[in-house]
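User:
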Amino acid sequence: MLGLKGIFETPRPDVGPAIAPESLPTVIALLYAPAVEVSTTSFPSGHAVAATVIWTMFALESDVGTQRQRLFGAAAMVVLVGFARVGAGVHFPIDVLVGTVAGICYLLFVLTVRHRVRARHGDHAAASATVTIAAVLAAFWTSGRPDTMALFGGCLGCLLAWQYATPSREPWPLTLQVGIHATVGIAALALVALVLLVVESLLVWLAVGLAGGLLVVGLPRLSSRTTVSRIQTELTS
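Assistant: Predicted structure:
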């Protein structure tokens, strides 16, 4: 998405949002304004790219319901996101359409690579390959932009954490301790991200992305180790 926006540099639609942020209560306006007051280029829709990738992967990787039901749900979510972006006046319909196609093409490429690496080297190497692809693409499109530097740092952080702190295959147990870990992790990530609002240094954005990638991938492993240690202590006692 960042690379394509940099190539085409298409302006946003010259219309305002249907609901002006200043007409809403302050708390709601703070959440609503960033979605409708954007200064980046329009083509393609980054929301459409992200929605296509994320919801399709949920449909492919989840085991809830049938795959047909999951894919139908994913398609519905992508359509809703597309309508929302056009309705908010921040994208043309073609932006959403091309963003969706770009997301599908990216998925086809990454999933093909993952399938081939998995067949030869196993699941761990397959996941490493997918993150490496993202890191290479981010490095190719950095061009001195803070957002792409943060993305590149995030890819590196994910890759490092995956190599040395691979999360357990088991889901997190629903315990108070795990809930505290998750809450602290999200809060720490949010506090670190606030730095990006006031600093434009490329190195700082790279460091914030790196910290985010390490935290998102590494925190489940930390929680798993803590849980295992507690269980072992209880069994020993």
